[in-house]
Amino acid sequence: MSMSLRHWFDYLVVLFICGLNHSWVACQESSDTSSLAFAESVADAKLIAIGKVPGTLRDLSGLNQQRSDGAAVDQFGGFSGIEWAGGNRYLVVPDRGFDIESDSYWCRFHEIDIDIDFANGTAEIVLHQSVLLTDERGNRYPGEGKWLSPSKNRAHRLDPEGIRLDVDGNIIICDEYGPYLLKFNRQGKLLTTLPVPANFEIQTPHAKGSQEDEENKQGRRSNRGLEGVAITPSGKFLVGLMQSPLIQDSGRDENGKFHGRNVRLLKLDLQTGQQQQFVYELEDDSHKLQELLAINENEFLVAEQDGDGGLKTKFKKLIRIDLSQATPLPEGTLLPPVGLPNAVIAVEKSVYLDLLSDEFGLANETMPDKIEGLSWGPWLDDNRRVLVVASDNDFSLENPTYLFLFSVSAAKVTTD
User: Are 143 and 75 in contact (CB under 8 A)?
Assistant: First the structure.
């Protein structure tokens, strides 16, 4: 495998999908989980491949029923999170499933390989297995909003949005419904539930999001819960990212529509259980936060974007944030929709990578509406590292899932 970057970029980058017959492919690379110190120059990020997963691809869950619209229940898509598992292996987690309330979707994660042919700017994506998520009793998690509580036949509803591996190799998944932070083993069985701040939770859940927003005065907005999760390189801290401002931190217009720019992050010490909250200021009221990825113990990448795709999209950026100088919010602190209290300092922000930059050639009619997955990948021979950016096709049969693969300049440093 050639590692000449000059050769890679001479080609039109197209990533072909394979593995429709789910054949096994392996291309193991060395795994290195040391912390990172990234070059300040964002222009040093290079697009090396584009992956395209057809919306009609079936997964390996073994669920062979049909949806009410005739599509398969085992449709492979809806990527909301992606995590590197070493070599060329990744875990991907779909969200709550198809937007058809009459269909019951069982939540799951998948193991895939992304095999990049650097010389030709192409790759193969191979699906290895699909694992259904279950609670400690073995009951599956439904994606439908109406399943508010667990029963003897099913767990409570779940809308998975982020996935990470902890230092023990277990899977951490964050959810929008609760919001929840759940730890599973690699077989998909629940091991434990991690604490979430009380002010993130709503008091009156409902199957309909509009009623949740009307009936609650605090907590996450409907379908705007924990959208991203990160584990710092030391494995000591978990950081969770809300998608939008909490109800109590938002304003409402005359039509009851929320507005606000102050989004909360949770920092959880996995050894002591200590919690801290920080503020991220959106660039615009209409934007959402979609994913979080650790660079080191204090710095992270955040995906901030508008909700548009194709030629309509105006904002699709990876923002580098630094928590080291930010103010941990005192308990009970309420935030205004815009601006901050005098004593509060938000996280420091800088643009790390603009997906709409001319140098990448992605600002066209194929740009997805939603960029929802961020993951590091293998180290390359020239001390650069793969960064994977994944889209969510919302289980559309017509729209593919895209994987944008970049190489970024990075240097290994020793974790204290």
Answer: no
- Residue positions counted in the chain: 416
Alpha carbons 409 and 387: distance in angstroms, whole number: 10
Please state, for a pLDDT cut of 70, what percent of the chain lies above it. 88
104/111 Cα distance (integer angstroms): 22
10 Å CB burial of residue 113 (0-12, 13-18, 19+) is buried
pLDDT, one tens digit per residue, over 57-98 is 999 999 988 888 878 899 999 999 999 999 999 999 999 998
Burial (0-12, 13-18, 19+ Cβ within 10 Å), 174: buried
Residue type, 357: S
How many Å is the maximal CA-CA distance in the chain?
Answer: 60
Q: Which pairing describes strands 316-322 and 226-231: parallel, antiparallel, or unpaired?
A: unpaired
Q: Sort residue 86 into left (φ over 0), alpha (ψ -120 to 50) or beta.
A: left
Q: DSSP letters of 80-143?
A: EEEEE-STTEEEEEE-S--S-TTS--B-EEEEEEEEEETTTTEEEEEEEEEEE-B-TTSPBPB-
Strands 190-194 and 181-184: antiparallel
